[in-house]
Amino acid sequence: MARRVFVHIGLPKTATTYLQTIVWSSRDRLLEDGMLLPGLGRFDHLWSSRIVREDPRLPKASEEHRTAWERLRAEIAAHDGDALVTHEFFAAASAEQARRMAEELAPAEVHVVITARDLLGLFTASWQESLKNRGTAPMADYSRDVSEDPRDVWNWRTLDLHLVLQRWSEAVAHERIHVLPLDTSAPREEIWHRFAGLLGLRAGAYDLSRSFPNESMGVVEAEVLRRVNEHLVAHRSLGAARDRGMFIRTFLADERLVPRRGEKFWPQADRVEECRRRNEATLAYLRAHPVDVVGDLSRLEIPAELPQRRTPDTVTDAEVAAVATDLVATMLADVRELRVAPPAAPREPARRGLLGALRRR
């Protein structure tokens, strides 16, 4: 049985994609360092999070999906060393589900790893992420309540570190919970070095060239995507998870809207104050309990004075129309390339990714 199991539970939008890309592209190197990354691929960890969180849709899932957690545990049981399980959706687990997960990993010593950031930045980034997952809620209405459903990820249930700590500390002692504050002003490699150091890895021995951040859209671009999603919902289009990931997230958001480098933005004033209140509760909890903070706790503070930025409710119909019409022109060029361009024709960098994959079919 593995000696220790590090369960990296997010939070969402805290460099999780960046860190997961590094470890999944370096499994052999991890084993050289004594760290097992179990499973056939990162989807096994996503599926395991759904099993742990008792998703009621599991009976209709494939056998590969339904057996993911069992297969991960079998690999961990057969490994002599440490193991890593990583997916941000574990953060939504209830206290009871977290306890059961820790028990199912026994007798290995379970450590919980939480990458975190100030709640205002996290709230803003997570709203965008909800749009990439076909969300339609305006930012003013996003995550107004705390969901009691462990399936709800884009909600205070997983965004509020205080709530996540309360639930998971019922399963794992505070001393074995490690919080890594994200320093958004530092080079992105810095969070990898702290993460690797905690896990006992040789941070400098890993190839970081294939890692990438999950980047954000500008305020107008985000509103365009939100309105597109409203039409998709009305027409019941692209509802399957695979379609959402391929066409909404990758093709439209990441490859067409993100590269526009639009304006940064904040939530409305009342949501900023809500983020401040919840953030202060998190900081008070961390100061009062023996949680292992790996890094500078002040990085979780929200500055008293914020730079001036727009809010999504200020986006005009004219701005939406300007971005949308430019997007239509871009996508017409995409369609032409897909249908009539010769296979060897050079492609602009922005046209690679999903379009290139479709063109090669």
From TrEMBL:
Name of the protein described by the UniProt record: Sulfotransferase family protein
Species of provenance: Nocardioides albidus
